[in-house]
Amino acid sequence: MYTTAVPTARDRKLTPEHEEIVKATLPAVGANIATIAQTFYRTMFGNHPELLANTFNRGNQKSGEQQKALAASVATFATMLVDPNAPDPVDLLARIGHKHVSLGITEDQYQIVYENLFSAIAEVLGTDVVTEEVAAAWSEVYWIMADVLITYEKELYASDGVDNGDVFREVTVVDKQELTDTVTTYTLEGDLTEARPGQYTSIGVVLADGARQLRQYSIIGQEPGRYTIAVETEGEVSTHLREKVQVGDTIQATLAAGDLVLVDDDTPVVLVSSRIGSTPMVGMLSHLAATGSGRRATYLHADDSEAAHAQLGQTTALLERLPEVTVAHSYRSNGELVDVASHDIAGSDVYLCGGTEFLQAIRRDLAALPSEKSPKSVHYELFSPNDWLLG
């Protein structure tokens, strides 16, 4: 699922009265947003336990990452509505929209979120602060954001010609290979639509306690009706896949989604990844190789060691078919770090994927480049909620 449309809210305005109320109460909401988010999820899962069992990832809930992501997104969106100088959070909204369609979220579920979120706001701030006027103002913030996302998500579903939410498919595991002690590839076959290079699929498995848990994994290769994914064993879903799922077994997978998509033009491309963040980059390299691309490209990858570099064999095979690609591997065991400044990335489209600290460091390095050496654009993906990227 993919569209070139962007989920912008720049043309949306609060009523003047509500804008003043949101400006006045934003500091109080911002100061308590983490507690509000925690209270919201506790309340919502208490009222709708099926959501925690079957839709939300329990690992992210336990770590608190999902709560932080919600807090950052609400505060960022509200700030944009009341501050004309604040950036339009298009990237934030696009990531949320793609994650939502990869989970089959539909319009009616926004009402559930609304009811429980505003119950949490009132509980944390108190009814003396959350008056009817304050509640009405923040309700307008929520429904503007919800309307932008609902419209965008409908376009994403329509891009694959499916009804809203109809993204889950029963797929058969037709190949399973262990790349390292922690990384395994799976090839899945079923009624799957074509994925854009860099996208992911949500994998659903039923665990021992009966819960259907979901996790997104990048698609590293595809054929008609088939996705191949690489999975690092970390968490309930990946552990279940490695220990319980074998060739011939059936699991669930969603139609491909994700906004980190290789733009198909002649612009030089730079792919930068760390550890299992290599997976969307392998998907992009696979596309370049399959299309016989002569596009100038640079691939920079950081890992703990050569032995831990799970997709080294795959990338080596792909790079042999891509003579125009410059490659550099950096291994921490050798004291090596990715040095983007040492490569010619001027005017390139840069794609980043990895852990939080890695992406923060690479973004700082890119921002420090002089204008004549700067890339044309920077696109990124985290394998966790994207809270820190919103500043």
Descriptive report:
The longest helix is centred in the N-terminal third of the chain and has 32 residues, at 16-47. α1 (16-47) runs antiparallel to α4, α1 (16-47) packs across α6 (109-125) and α5 packs across α7 (132-159). The protein has 391 residues and is an alpha/beta fold. The radius of gyration is 22 Å and the shape is globular. β8 (297-303), α10 and β9 form a beta-alpha-beta unit. The strands form two sheets. It has a six-stranded antiparallel β-barrel. The chain is built from eleven helices and eleven strands. It has three domains: 16-159, Orthogonal Bundle (Globin-like), CATH 1.10.490.10; 168-254, Translation factors (Elongation Factor Tu (Ef-tu), domain 3, Beta Barrel), CATH 2.40.30.10; 269-390, Nucleotide-binding domain of ferredoxin-NADP reductase (FNR) module (Rossmann fold, 3-Layer(aba) Sandwich), CATH 3.40.50.80.
